[in-house]
Amino acid sequence: MPDPNPIDHLIGLLAKLPGLGRRSARRAVLKMLMQPDQAMLPLAEALRAAAAAVQPCRICGNLDAANPCGICRDPQRDHGLICVVEGVSELWALERAHAHRGLYHVLGGTLSALGGIGPEDLAVQPLLARIEGAAPPVREVILALPATVDGATTAHYLTDRLRPTGVQVTRLAQGVPIGGALDVLDEGTLAAALKARRAV
After folding, report:
1. Quick check: 55 and 37 in contact, CB under 8 A?
2. How many whole angstroms separate alpha carbon 148 and alpha carbon 146?
3. How far apart (Å, rounded) are the C-alpha atoms in residues 24 and 199?
4. pLDDT of residue 186
């Protein structure tokens, strides 16, 4: 069978990436083909180097070329504070916001009865082991999980598993987003906002 057209093949590969449809992939490929030395070859080399060097951190599960990752090795971080996230994309989002100066733990998903994902499929045991052997000791675990049924189930399960360790367990606040108008929010968001109210 003959090799596929290299342009179509490249467009097809790029179109599989999140956020890129076939039209966006076609524009990107055209741009790269117009300047292969400046755009395509450096990208190909960067992809090859990243594929060879990047790996999951053995402590938290973040992706980095160093192992442990730069966050886990950073002495300026608060090592007594661990933020539990569903995946690496949520970790990166929190880092972009510069909102968390502690460490992280990537679960690798959430519990899902329909999806057949149980506790053994997630990085729960490594989290418990981190807390038990931590020096300095972990003071607080922040559950930064999605505001979904699966996220709430996972948070409840983790809370039960963490209770015997004596560590404080907290969750992200949920409710009205900054700039959000009440009349366009769904009932679940409004209910969560009322339950999470605080004194002013």
Report:
1. no
2. 5
3. 48
4. 76
